[in-house]
Structures are given as structure tokens and as C-alpha cells.
């Protein structure tokens, strides 16, 4: 299995699907795209780790970011108040020439995430940036949770709000207060158990909802909604690719775990297969 070699590979446009597992992608991509698919090994198991290890020089990129960790605010990862949980002294603006903060402009308050069509809209609204850059990255948040059919995303919502507030230097005293009972419970569960498998699993239960868990079990419920998220994203990817002229790849920054080796979701420097095996599809056409 080849290393990811994200920047070293030949492409004009890179579609990054956040937290996309190779195995699930391999089962669904053929419904949407044609091309040569291979499994590659990411250097990271989370977005902050992937970004800091991938973009180490100065890169002439138009980067459409649905993920708030890659932003145009000029704040190092280790100074972010929300969600980074890392010591990476990496600042996106020092390495990427032009970042379009779709995580901010394209945020959907009802879904509490950045839907894939927001990335497409931002791309079309910033054609000049694409033409001016050497290469372009479009970083969709899906299949990363929250799951769009449920329309509730507490974890990403708090990351987005915290980074946005910090970038604006508001310094409000309520930064640490989650906006809903579900978010509050999740924070207390994870904070009390601190990284234990049960905490990760209970946090995921809150995201999934009791009916889905009781019907399909935690893993089954999560993977069903995860695949649905991926398919929703792939519909937008197809729409975008139809308008692109050049070499296109579809890949991921890292994967997602559903109980493998006791891990749920994804975490920094947890290099298990579920989190580092990612797709690399050289697109040959659309279905």
C-alpha cells in the first residue's frame, strides 16, 4: 500500500473528503465516478495532524476549506481554544497561499455543519482564486459527522463557533458553554472519562440518537449514517467535477473508526488502519 504523497502526486484539483475510510469509499464510489482507485496510507489520523505534516513549505493553492482547522485567521493550531487538542505549532496561512473559509461563509445553522453544496457554491464564487493558483483543493466536511439526515452536530458546531469567536477576538466569557443539553452531556461524559472507549462510544450515542442505536447497534447505526453522508457528498462532488478541466483526484485526510481496536471516531496520532487507510481515486469520468 502506497504512502499518501498528497502534494507529491500529480493533480490539478484535489477533492478531500474529511474522515473518509477506504473500505466504505471503495464500496460506493463506482455509483458516482469512474477512475483508478487505490488504497493509500495517510500520515495522520486527524485533520490538525494531517495539515501540519502535509503543508510544511509554502504552497500555491486555492484551498476551499469546510474544516475550521484549516482557516485564513492566522491562528496556530496549538492556540485554538476549541477541538485541536494538539501541540502543533502550525498556522495554515503560513503555508497555503489562499484559503477560502467555507466553514464560516457556508455554515448551515439548521444542519449545524458545512453542507457539501456550500463548497460548490464557494468554488463557483471564487473562480479568480482558482485561476490564479497553481492547484486547487476542495475540502468537504463529509462523510465526517454530524450526519446530515439527523441535522444535529454539536461537536463541530462548538469547534466552528469557538474558532470564529477567537478569530474575531471577542473573548466572550461563555466560550466554554455548549448551546444545548445534548452538547452539555457529551462534554461532561467525555471530560469525566477522558479518552476512555466508553466516553467515545457514549459521545457517539448522543450523536446517533437512541432509536438508531437500539435498532442497529452502535457500529451499525453509525456506519449506516456515515455511508449516507458519503453518498450525499459524492453527489456534490460529481456536480463539481463536471465543470473541472484537468487532472482530478478524490482522497481523504484520514479515516474514521467504529470500534476497531477500541477506537471510535478519530483522534490525533492514533495510526490504526481504520484511521489511516484512505482512498486515492484518479478520476476518469462521472457516471
From TrEMBL:
It comes from Halapricum hydrolyticum. InterPro entries: Alkaline_phosphatase_core_sf. This is Uncharacterized protein. It comes from the Archaea.
Amino acid at each position: 500500500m502506497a504512502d499518501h504523497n498528497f502534494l507529491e502526486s500529480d493533480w490539478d484539483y484535489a477533492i478531500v473528503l474529511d474522515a473518509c475510510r477506504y473500505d466504505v469509499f471503495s464500496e460506493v464510489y463506482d455509483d458516482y465516478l469512474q477512475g483508478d482507485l487505490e488504497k493509500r496510507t495517510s500520515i495522520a489520523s486527524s485533520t490538525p495532524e494531517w495539515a501540519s505534516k502535509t503543508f510544511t513549505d509554502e504552497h500555491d493553492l486555492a484551498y476551499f476549506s469546510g474544516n475550521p482547522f484549516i482557516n485564513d485567521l492566522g491562528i496556530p493550531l496549538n492556540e485554538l481554544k476549541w477541538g485541536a487538542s494538539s501541540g502543533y505549532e502550525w498556522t495554515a496561512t503560513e503555508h497555503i497561499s489562499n484559503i477560502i473559509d467555507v466553514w464560516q461563509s457556508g455554515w448551515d445553522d439548521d444542519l449545524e455543519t458545512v453542507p457539501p453544496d456550500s463548497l460548490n457554491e464557494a468554488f463557483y464564487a471564487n473562480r479568480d482564486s482558482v485561476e490564479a493558483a497553481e492547484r486547487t483543493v476542495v475540502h468537504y466536511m463529509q462523510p465526517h459527522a454530524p450526519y446530515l439526515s439527523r441535522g444535529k452536530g454539536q461537536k463541530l458546531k462548538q469547534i466552528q463557533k469557538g474558532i470564529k469567536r477567537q478569530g474575531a477576538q471577542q473573548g466572550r466569557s461563555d466560550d466554554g458553554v455548549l448551546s444545548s443539553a445534548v452538547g452539555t452531556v457529551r462534554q461532561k461524559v467525555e471530560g469525566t472519562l477522558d479518552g476512555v472507549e466508553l466516553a467515545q462510544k457514549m459521545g457517539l450515542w448522543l450523536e446517533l440518537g437512541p432509536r438508531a442505536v437500539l435498532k442497529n447497534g452502535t457500529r451499525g447505526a453509525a456506519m449506516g449514517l456515515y455511508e449516507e453522508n458519503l453518498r450525499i457528498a459524492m453527489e456534490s462532488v460529481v456536480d463539481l467535477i463536471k465543470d473541472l478541466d484537468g487532472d482530478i483526484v478524490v482522497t481523504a485526510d484520514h479515516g474514521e473508526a467504529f470500534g476497531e481496536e477500541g477506537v471510535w471516531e478519530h483522534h490525533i496520532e492514533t495510526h490504526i488502519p481504520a484511521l489511516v487507510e484512505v482512498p486515492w481515486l484518479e478520476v476518469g469520468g462521472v457516471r
